[in-house]
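In the previous chapter we treated chains in isolation. Here, by contrast, the input contains two separate entities that must be folded as one system, with a combined length of 1161 residues.
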Amino acid sequence: MADSLPSHMRPERSFQGLILALQRYWADYGCVILQPYDMEVGAGTFHPATTLRALGPRPWQAAYVQPSRRPKDGRYGENPNRLQHYYQYQVILKPNPPNLQELYLKSLAAIGVDLALHDVRFVEDDWESPTLGAWGLGWECWCDGMEVSQFTYFQQVAGFECSPVSGELTYGLERLAMYVQGVENVYDLNFNGRDGADKVTYGDVFLQAEREYSRHNFEYADVDMLFEQFRMAERACQKYLADGWDRPQEARSAGGATGKQENLEGAKHLMALPAYDQCIKASHAFNLLDARGVIAVTERQSYILRVRDLAKACGAAWLGTEAGGA
Amino acid sequence: MPDLLLELFSEEIPARMQRKAADDLKKLVTDALVEAGLVYAGVRTFVTPRRLALSVHDLPARSPDIREEKKGPRVGAPEKALEGFLKAAGLTSIDQAKVQPDKKGDFYVAIVEKPGRAAPEVIAEIVPAIIRAFPWPKSMRWGARSAEPGSLTWVRPLHSILCTFGPETEEPEVVAFEIGGIRSGNTTFGHRFMGAGEITVRRVDDYMTKLEAAHVVLDAERRKDIILHAARDQALALGLELVEDDVLADEVSGLVERPVVLVGKFEDAFLDLPPEVVRTTIRNNQKCFVLRPAGNAPAASSFETRPLGAPQDEAGRGNAGRSPHPEVRGPQENEDGRRPDREEKSSRASKDEGGRLAPRFILVANIEASDGGKAIVAGNERVIRARLSDARHFWNTDLAPLPDYRDKAEKPLDQRLEKLKAQNIVFHEKLGTQGERVERIVQLAKEIAPLVGADPAKAERAAWLAKADLVTEMVGEFPELQGLMGKYYAEKQGEDASVATAIEDHYKPLGPSDRVPTDPVAIAVALADKIDLLLGFWAIDEKPTGSKDPYALRRAALGVIRILLEGNLRIKVKDVLGKSLFHLLGSLLESQDVYWGTKKESELWNLAKLRPGAVPSGAEVAFLVLTKHPDNGSNIGFKSLEVLNLGARLVSFIPRTADFVDGLLAFFADRLKVQLREQGVRADLVDAVFALGNQDDLVLIVRRVNALGAFLATEDGKNLLAGYKRAVNILRDEEKKAGAKVDGDIDASLLSEPQEQALATAVDAAIPAATKAVDAEDFSAAMAALAQLRAPVDAFFEKVLVNAPDEKVRANRLRLLNRIRQATLAVADFSKVAG
């Protein structure tokens, strides 16, 4: 396939070409190709298409690019491979097909990694997200010693056993692009595959943003506002969760946000997604506060637990929705 | 005879789990076979990242028939007994049982016959049960079947099972079973990238050759050999030498099925970094080996070898979910405070002079690439260059001033220490912050310094900087470099050589065979660090119990013991513990912001009317807290609430201060016993010396124990001990009867027999002689003085009757026996000596 493309579209020539090649590959496989979630998240896993869709019995196959914000990783544009905003390519297949490793390897071939030439390895890496109450087993995928993807079989999400298990692939797009383009500095990546005056680099697109956001994240983010946002999001999430049960009385007596779905047998939830949005907001506010260094070490854990409680309750609510299998 | 071949083919098994999995599989299968009556001649296991296999040789085709006689009740026994027998023997009527005569009469006997079964039938039951219950450290569900309750779990998705059984001369059969939707068969797959499709296998020999042809080296040891030989050869060809790393070799051989060894290079300029940094970067992050110029090996291996990804650091304390103490993570220690494969291997760590590396590295790929590995090498070089650039960035950052700390301290490490303190990272909830701990160690190191011949100012300086590297970028990235980086950074900022050494060495010894610090400054800081740790956890009652020692206190105590003994350092441990306790109380008070935390030590003691260096009692400290606080009684409100809180916090452990200092000493005694036992010293002798009380000079204790051991090995010693036991037995009976201790002086006028006169004279001479020798710390002389008692004691018991008819004489002779007891107490408590 790659051979039939004009050179500026080729995955090894341009950042966007690489994304397009992955989109095409996974679309061809049968995934729904989603667009990025329109909220700030720390990783593609936070997208409801992964977190929530991983719960419940219904099959699901999706792929999407997700901008990921990690305020603490900002380096004012001075580090060649660390960014506070970067792209992940996320694939979620539920249940995981038996040949998921093969599918992954073929996707590498699709973006120009010749498997007869390169050393691709699956190196143990167990995944855990304390904020999402989630864990899984899998690997870091190495290509010639460079970690280019994460490969995880979800075992638990939002405190619930995954039934069935989903396979999750997360490609670090910048790293992968740096690899296939043979570039040492992320800002030197060719974004559009053109040469000369027409060439747009990753730096042209994002360097200024990295500088501005680093400044914001570490020095100027409004702490009072963020604390307030955290509290508001937490409260709103809890409220939507409580009010979302079609038999709210019953839900409240069952503990509402405790995530005990068995007590809610038969109850339907009507606002799991809006509630989960608030959970995402709380998580991002926390990440920003953390980057600002205003959360004491001892408090950190309690914030993480607060977000996790929200995530768990959202998971319970999701299981009470139609897409969640109720 | 038939062989069994079993292969469990899966997605990539974590390298660290492979070896144990192979051992587990072997044990589980062979145990189950033997249990079923299938006895075998040999067994072999194989493990690669994608397969776990085993072959069992020379099994019988069938399990043997079993004929069993079950003896039942007597003929004519009650109905109940007969029923029970029939049920147990599986009979329907008592007629089916035979009647056999016995000495006591006729009994029923049931003959139970179990015909043997075909081995494949047995194996088809055994293997699925083992797979279901396999002891992986972590296992998972996968695929569509994971939605079903009780679905199969494995370390990673299991794809196929090969299981054949048959003799060499015939076509083996497939042992048929199904588990989790996988049907057993006789096929497998070769190398992920270099193999060509499905392979049909008959038995172990063609299994091995076919897989070899499909680019899979089955034997983990062989993969390791291939890697190490190729690595050494390639190094040699470049005029270099491989820096051996067994742990890495093990791991890497678990990451490939077909090892291909390649050499990469990096820029010479990176060699300006400390060699340990270069190596740790390349090893931990990229799992590659480093090389050095040939003939440039340092005297002792310059590198510590620790399991990858298993740092023993203090750096992570601030992170949520991490333990507050360095040694908390990882496997528990066993009784001797060892962590078998952990510190043992790090023990060869030493100074790094001569440890210069070459700008090359060895990588182990999993494929024979079509371009001979050029692309793979280039890719790895790129990653390693980036990683080394990061390391250089850390190094430069760590040597530069911290933007916010310039006013507080001038030098880089001093600034890091300020930062460490400012971060208020909790060391332990009840023991304050890291910063407070540093202050305690500083005080204590300064006090220990003169006792070990160190310059107190240098000890203070070293203790001050010892933990500063915990907040450096480099140690944040590579926690296992703690201490070492501190040394490098200290050298760079022009610290005294002893100070720099002490920063690295204060963590030592990390295990029973790790070296101990020898520079006096390092000794002072190492002791202060360990004693503060021990005393702190004793104070809050977090002692090791059984196999649990989360703060590695056994290791710390053993460290103190080894430092003192190997350095022949005469220190009264109890005094040091008292000082340590003082600093602990002080820092807890200071953290409450009460004024007298800032007072000088002497003043504080004076206030509490305490003798400096003494162990403060609960009452004394309570007095200190409650009477000397400035707001005591004068200021109602917040301040006095604070005093109350403070009081409550201290009172929770103050009443136990004397207890736990003694308890900690007893802990040292236990550790010392363990340590000495390894050198063949009897534990009872250590007890005999400790039982004297007030024994806290470990060097002296060991000398005394050794002298005692030597003495008791002589004829004189053995006989004296026997005489002592005899005397004490008599005294014990007597004292029990009388309800009072036998005591008092001997009345010479009552000594009628020559043997008792001789004994009295000998004891009168021996006691002062032994005491004098002990005072002069000449334990051999003390033992020699006791040896003088042997002949008179023997003669006394031979000729003299203690139970004299005359009550006065008898009482006098008992007092004479008591003198023997007193005499021995000059050197040890003989009652603790076994035998």
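Confidence is low (pLDDT under 50) at residues 304-354, 592-615, 626-648 of chain B. The radius of gyration of chain B is 36 Å. Compare these points with the single-chain example from earlier in the chapter.
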